[in-house]
Amino acid sequence: MKLYKVLKNGEIMESPVPGQYAGYKRGKIFGRLGCKSGMRMKKENRVFFHTLEDAVREGYHPCMNCRPIDEKDFENIKHLVPEKTLEEFYHRK
Question: Which of 31, 38, 39, 65 is 20 to 30 A removed from 5 (C-alpha atoms)?
Answer without folding.
Answer: 65
